[in-house]
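Predict structure. Chain length: 91.
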Amino acid sequence: MFLNALRPSERKSAEDTGKPLRAAFSTTTWPVGQVITDVRVLRFPPTAKPGELDVEVGWFLPGVDRLSVLAADGHEADSRQLLSKVRIRNE
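Prediction complete.
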């Protein structure tokens, strides 16, 4: 799974990528309908410039492209889901 904060140019400013629950949970044993809570943290470098960034989440297989996100009607919508925006500001 990946969680990224992107600048308007689509350049990553922060990311947290890895298996669910820090690899303590395998998606191959994930029963259909079971909900898990997976905490992810976006750490920005101290030199990060102020601005508004998009936060995206999605799934991938190691060594393979990202997996598709399906729309409610079942068609492939994208390879990510935009969640929200975050703002970096000067203190």
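Summary: The CA atoms of residues 21 and 35 lie 12 Å apart.
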